[in-house]
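FAQ: What does the model actually see?

It sees only this:
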Amino acid sequence: MKLDFSNSTYIVEELRNKKRQLIARIYTKNGKSILRDIDGTKLGTYDSKENKTMDKQGHLIGYGNWLVALLFDYQNLIK
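And it is asked to produce this:
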């Protein structure tokens, strides 16, 4: 799935593994962050105003930014 963020002002962080391969991106705008895998599938969200991280189904993962932890769970599933 190709995402078009060209008309938005997102801050984009690229996450890479130890082989420097792109494994995910975090898109942040207005205090809300979305973790997406390389195919564009949403893995979770973080809202800095509420200080909550949610998984892709909207279940509370924890307080604080736990997006990277969701990524590690995802990487274990695809091995």
